[in-house]
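Cont'd.
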Amino acid sequence: MTPFSIAGAGRTLRDGSTTSVELVEQVLERSSMVEAQVHAYLTLDSEGIVRAAREADQALATGNDRGPLHGIPIALKDNMTTRGMETTAGSRILAGYIPPYDATVVSRLRAAGALITGKTNLDEFAMGSSTENSAFGPTRNPWNTDRVPGGSSGGSAAAVAARMAFGALGSDTGGSIRQPASLCGVVGCKPTYGAVSRYGLIAFASSLDQIGPLTHTVEDATLLLDAVSGHDPLDATSYPGALVPSGERLGRGLEGVRVGVAADIGGVEGVEPDVESSFARIVAGMEGAGAKLVDVSLPSTAEGLSAYYLIAPAECSANLARFDGVRYGLRVEGTTTEDMMSRTRAEGFGPEVTRRVLLGTFALSAGYHEAFYGQAQRVRTLILREFARAYEQCDVVVSPTSPTTAFALGDRTDDPLSMYVSDVFTIPSNLAGHPSISVPVGTDRNHLPIGFQVMAPALEEAVMFQVAEAVEALAGFDTTVPFDPEFGLRGGVR
Ligand code: GLN
C-alpha cells in the first residue's frame, strides 16, 4: 500500500514500487466510493489526470524528474483560475465560466509536475465557515457526514481527508484553510501575506487573502507550499525577497523553543471542553519535550472578529463590483443597463455575499467611514503591535484552531454571528499578515478531529513548521478517516 502522503508517494514513485497512474487510480477509486456522500469536488477531471499521470510516468522514466510534486494528484479550491476548466468560486454568478488563463499557483503546480485532480467546493466567494454557502450544495465532513467540513475551503479539506487528493490548495482570508483543516483532521497552513501570489485567485478581501496548502502531514505542507510560493511580478503585493525553504528546520524538535500561550487570545468564551483539554495536553507535552512556555498577552485580538467583519466586507464590496453582467459570468437582461446589472447581481449572488456587500458598502459610506472602517484599521494596527511585543519573548504563539469541532449541517445557517465566531482564533494572523498552521492533534468524545494552531512572525515559516512537526509527533494522530470499504463512510464510528 502506498503511504498516503506526498513525501511517501514520491519515494515509492522513485523506487519504482508504484506509478503515478496507480496513484490516480487510487484517488479515483476512493472518489467513486465516497464522493456521492461527501461532495468535495465541483469538477473532478478524471480523464485529464489519467492522461497527465501517463505523461508524468513517462517523464520520470526518462530521467525528467520535476521534484517532490512530480506525478502527485493535487486538488484546487474552485476560486483559483484554471485555463480551460470551469471556475465558479462557488457562485451562480460565475457558473459556466471558463477562464482563459491559469492562476500563478496553477502554472507553478503544473511546472512542478503535479496533477490537477479538479476544483473543490467552497462557500460562495470564500465567505463562510461551513461550505454551506456554496451555490452548488454543501460538502460533508468525511469523519461524519451529518457534520460540516468547515469552510470556506471545505471541499479541499474533505478531499484530502477522504483521500481523494494527496494534497490541496485552499485560500484563507480569516481562517478558511485552518478551520476546515481542523474540522477534517488534516494539516492546513496560511503562509505569510505575500508569500504566495494571488494572481488568478478570485479576490474576496485583498489585504487578507492568502493561498496555502492542505495536506496529511506537516512535511507535505512544506513541499506543497514551496512549490507555489515566491515572488510574482503579476501580484503587486507579492513578497519581493527570497523565501527561506519551509522545511529548513524540520527535525529539530522543541528543545529551547519559546512557546507563547496567550490566555486572552480572541477574548472568547465557549471553547468546547474537549478542545480545551486536548490543547492543554499538547502544550504540556511541548514543555516535556524541551519547549519553554511563556505567558504572553494579546488583548486587542478580542476585537479582531469585529475588525475583520468590517475590513473584509469593505474590501469585498469593492472586489465584487466587477460582477456586473457586462464582461463575463451571468447576465440577466433588464430594461436599462442599470436594471440589467441589478437583476444580474440579485440573481447571481447568494444571501451571505449580499449581506457582506451591503455591510461593506455601509462601512465605507461617507459619514460612517471613520467610525467603522477607520476604527477597524486602528484595531488591526494594535493587534500587529501586540504580536510584535509578544514575539520579543517567544518564537511562536499557540492556540486551539477552532473553538469547536465540526458542527451539524444547518446548525448555524440561521445565525450569521454563530458562524462568524468559528474564526476567533484564526483571524488575528490574517489581520497581522503572519503565517499560521493547524495540526490535527486528537478527537473529541464524538470522534471528531481537533486542531492545534501554531502562529509565527512574518516570514518565519521555517520555525512554524519546525514546531508544527513536533506537535504532530507528540499528538500521534492518525489522519485515516473512519471508512468501511463496503459501506463507504460510517458516520463517525471508528
Ligand atoms: N469564515 C470567514 C468568513 O466567512 C473566513 C473566510 C475565509 O477565510 N475566506 O469571512
